[in-house]
Amino acid sequence: METHFWHERWHRREIGFHRSEIHWALKRHWDEISGGRAGRVMVPLCGKSLDLRWLAERGHGVVGVELSGRAVEEFYREWKKAPTCTRSGRLQHWRAGNVEIFEGDFFDYLNDEPFQMFYDRAALVALPQEMRGRYIDHLGSLLADNASGLLVTFEYDQASMDGPPFSVPADELGDYPGFRFELIERRDALADHPGFAQRGLTDLQECAWRVIPV
């Protein structure tokens, strides 16, 4: 999962992880996660997700982090917004409306003000197991003590298909002591991802979790 892997995926347009509609878990559960607050939301490894726009339209200040400059440019172009772009440490800082995207490595992102909320649809599952603990630790460093977040994971037989996206079993989440993970919904998702069946999967579960720092 070196940086060139993701740059190459965007260059070759191998972006099956990009969805053309708002994620079901966001629409169904975000009000519960946010508690009706319209604060700032951290979205790691955000790509050019339409979910960013959905959150922004509900009054949130949205801050994404994305490795691919092509993804960032496409996000604002498809949104028909003209962003500003400035340097911020090791990252490029793009901004238009109430959506900011920092282009670069998520582990290089540092914030001045802790986030009250976060949304992870495609970050944790994009990382192999040996990188996930480091990701969780860095995410935790960006959050306020009373923060809450929505996490989406996949569960499947990892031996049947190479990631990404990777399977993140429920018992693994218990290995991350900085957070409490509460399962909100689990659904059979194989029909929604026909490409996974072509790669050998016969069962795919998609899980939505409420996440709270402890």
From TrEMBL:
GO terms for molecular function: thiopurine S-methyltransferase activity. Keywords: Cytoplasm, Methyltransferase, S-adenosyl-L-methionine, Transferase. It is found in: Cytoplasm. It comes from the Bacteria. It catalyses: S-adenosyl-L-methionine + a thiopurine = S-adenosyl-L-homocysteine + a thiopurine S-methylether. It is an enzyme of class 2 (transferase). Its main location: cytoplasm. Belongs to the class I-like SAM-binding methyltransferase superfamily. TPMT family. This is Thiopurine S-methyltransferase.
